[in-house]
Amino acid sequence: MKIRLASDLQSDSIVDGEGIRTVIWTQGCSHNCLGCHNPATHDFKGGFLTDTDEINKELSLLEAQTGITFSGGDPLFQVEACTEIAKHAKEIGMDIWCYTGFTFEELMKSDKNIEFLKYVDVLVDGKFIMAERSLNVDFRGSRNQRIIDVPASLEAGKVVLIPKYVGERHVDVSIPKKEHIYI
Ligand code: SF4
């Protein structure tokens, strides 16, 4: 099945979910979040076309990767192709994170999306909202975005958040005591 990507697979990421991850940068997004970090991925005719079989072959050859992360762009605009890849990633023992500008509740209205979510471990959902931007939230850009335990959410029929990612990190901005300054 064809899939349009923004770039080649990116291995060894430590910022797109837990562990060491290979990122699949999908091409195409119409959410138009103000301040989007990746506007070059919006054009649905941009990037390049490849085949899910090719992606799956590449994934099988990777070493020392915890899992894959779907990002973009918004992967959910190519949900059937992403499902093909997600199935294979699970078969070879990788876990799956996915970023989307849709909310979990919006995704649950479509059977195709639900089929994809059955393979996803963690969903980071919602648009990037500039007014909610924070540098003190893990693995996301704005406070409104949620880090969702997908298997638990599907079972409960409602969003179940991963507790350690709820809210902002405490950041100590106090000035270090003199004896702790080494220059
Ligand atoms: S959903 Fe992501 S890629 Fe799409 S506009 Fe928003 S921040 Fe950018």
Question: How would you sum up this structure, described in words?
Answer:
By secondary structure, the chain is α/β, with parallel strands linked by helices. The protein has one domain: Aldolase class I (TIM Barrel), CATH 3.20.20. Helices cover 22% and strands 19% of the residues. It has helices at 52-61, 79-91, 104-107, 111-117, 150-156; strands spanning 2-5, 10-13, 21-25, 48-51, 67-71, 95-99, 122-125, 146-149. Strands 2-3-5-6-7-8 form a 6-stranded mixed sheet. Strands 1-4 form a two-stranded antiparallel ribbon. Strand 5, helix 2 (79-91) and strand 6 form a beta-alpha-beta unit. Helix 1 (52-61) runs parallel beside helix 2 and helix 2 (79-91) packs parallel to helix 4 (111-117). Residues 29, 31-33, 36, 38, 41, 72-74, 101, 127-128 line the site of iron/sulfur cluster.
